[in-house]
C-alpha cells in the first residue's frame, strides 16, 4: 500500500511568531488568589533558553513566584523541531504549555507561565488556568 505525501502533512493556517524579543502579560488570570503571568522570549538555541530563564529569575517578581513553568520549540537547521519543557514544581504544567505551542505551530519561542500561589488549592483547575493563560497570550499577540 502506497501513501501519498499529503497524508502526513499538516495544513496549519497560522504560524505564530513573536513581534519582539520579550513579551510579557502580567496577571492574565486570577483564580482564588493565584495569579498567572505569561512571558515569551524569541529563542534560537538551548543556550538562549538557559540564559533568558536565568535572567528572568533575577527579577524579584519572578524570583518570588511559586512556579515558573515553561516550554519551548526551536526549528533546527535540518528542519526538525527541538522542543522541551520544565514544570518547576507544578507537575504537568510544562506539558500544558508545550501543547499550546504545538497547537499554534510556534517555533523559535520559549513560553513561561508564572504562578503566584496564595494558599488555596486549585487541583485540576491549575492546569486549566495554565492553558487559558497561554491561549490569552496568543489572542493578545495576534491582534
Can you identify the CATH class?
Alpha Beta
CATH superfamily: Impact, N-terminal domain
- Radius of gyration (CA) equals 16 Å
By DSSP (H or I, 4+ residues per run), the number of helices equals 4
Order of helices and strands: EEHHEEHEH
Strand order in the largest sheet: 1-2-5-3-4
> Any guess at the CATH architecture?
2-Layer Sandwich
Domain module count: 1
Mean pLDDT: 83
- Helical fraction equals 25-40%
CATH fold type: Ribosomal Protein S5, domain 2
- Number-wise, the strands total 5
Distance between the termini: 45 Å
Instruction: Quote the beta fraction.
Output: 25-35%
Q: Which stretches are low in confidence, meaning pLDDT under 50 for 5 or more residues running?
A: 1-14
Which structural class best describes the helix and strand composition? alpha+beta
Major β-sheet annotation: 5 strands, antiparallel
Task: State the shape.
Answer: globular
Brief overview:
The protein is α+β, with helices and mostly antiparallel strands.
